[in-house]
Specification:
It contains twelve helices and no strands. By secondary structure, the protein is mainly α. It has one domain. Helix 2 packs across helix 8 and helix 5 runs antiparallel to helix 8. It is globular.
Length: 290
Amino acid sequence: MALTAPWTPGPIRESADTLRRTLPIRVEFSRQISQWRVRVVLIIFGVLPIVVRLAFLIGGAGGPAAGRTDLAAFAQASGTTFTAFILVITAGFLLTLVVALLFGDMIAGEASRSTLKYLLTIPVGRTRLLFVKVLVASTVLVVGILLLTGMSLLVGTISYGSGGIQIPVGPQLGMGESLLRILAAVAVICLHLSWAAALGTMFTVLAEAPLAAAGGVVITSILSSILERIPDLGIVRNYLPTWNTDAFREFFAARIDYGPVVDSVLSALIYALIFTTVAVWWFRRKNISS
């Protein structure tokens, strides 16, 4: 009598549900790029240097204005100086507004469109969902800032030549050093914006409407900027999230003071850690019905 081989289970294949258990980053990136707010942000970043160049043409070409020692007075000295000027005028309110739009819509936008509960039934873990959305929004933000910087260099170099940054009441830097300083300034700007990005992440899981989440970031930034201009607050101002927002300007000075730069980055990262922790904790426990 022939003996039959004992039955053994074959190779275990992952089901479709298991394969879809994690939300692919490329899928979320495609979804974000297809949204109007992301496209508008990237278009603004690409067009803004051209708008500023046209404004200089309308205002009249020329060298530094008499008696002025700010970077704006030297913006037309070279392409790199023009780029530094663009970073100075956009690093405050404009970039904070962009961060509010990108991060405030992540979860609140899904909730307002009644698609959040369907995303979570793919199934995909809440922490994974939040991580992917933050990663994609951060990537879009960094790409946008790099696009702004690259377009500024292109427009500025075509218009004013390829010289180094002209330091107000100081020397003109070499081209290589100027590019390194611009990259360093961009890195500091991105790191400092982490507090606003994390705040937007926290508000987007707390709010049900993206406008409320984005507005919370903008209002917080405005209030913090107002409070830091009140001398009577003393040392309290040093602990506000917008303190040393313009620390990246140290890279456009004759001698770089790294103290404000380090303080700016450390403060932003600490706030980012706190806000992100609260966001993850709340989102994991949130009752989602929309």
